[in-house]
Input
Amino acid sequence: MGWLTNRLLSIPVDETRVSRRGFHVQDAAVAARLESIGQNFLRGYHAALQDQNNAALGRSLRAIDNELQGFAFEGAAMALTLLDYLLPVKLGRFHRFLNTEGAPHIYMLHVGAGWAMARLPWLRWRVSSFIATLDPLVRWLALDGYGFHQGYFHWPESVRRHAVPRGIAGYARRAFDQGLGRSLWFVEGADAARIAAAIAAFTESRRADLWSGVGLACAYAGGRDLAHLELLREAAGPYVAQAAQGAAFGAKARERAGKPAAHTEMACGVLCGRSAKTAAAITDAALRDLPPDGVEHRYEIWRQRIQESFQEQSILACQPLGGVCK
Output
């Protein structure tokens, strides 16, 4: 069955090329970095389409370079979710992998599930029902993944014309924007000025979530030097706390998976005014005594606490030396 699903669901590697996507990337090194992320996402995606058992799939993904493994796990999660809803004979592939080999990458797996939602209309029509099957706290990352997918593959509509898919409302729309913000790191070639101009064109109510996504992409995906990250911090202006919260999420995702990266350390130094370890610890502290979902979702309360933590600590006054503050 693996050969058939691979043939039907295969995604050509050319789809990850910045020229094919029409992204605005001026720096060759940045283009190579962004393309390598997409290529490793597809490595994980195609590995999961082979319908391997969890242990074998885990070994395949761990053979990928440590720093890029998270993207491969994200791609695998997309494939497993597609298989669950296209070939329901073995329903539960995603959750079995999440509870075994994929557990350290829980955040990336939920984002990957959102890519599948973007591809399957019957999941998009029943967003609430679909995310209700996911982790109660981080289920909103599936909407984040959906938003990233729309920005990555349909940026003229989503980024330039600010279109939001039908059926995305309430907090789902905010989570969608967080992922759309992440896509700007790719669409605008990780260029601070272009990213800031793109976000400024959105209505004010959407900008904070977009900047949060940019901060996460900056810290997790990387691709820019210290000087450019400082330009990004300046460009974020009143939304720098949101960008810092996104960067802290990126640091926590890497810490939990045990996949640190020098660019994550640098991004946290600039955007959070803290080391990656300290930024990740702030996300942990913000989880304590979270109230149950009510008028506001626990996930959003978590995000707000992190943002408030950075604001209260006056981290913007910190001048990082070499991109890292203690």
The chain has two domains: 1-142, 190-326. The chain is about 65% helix and 0% strand.
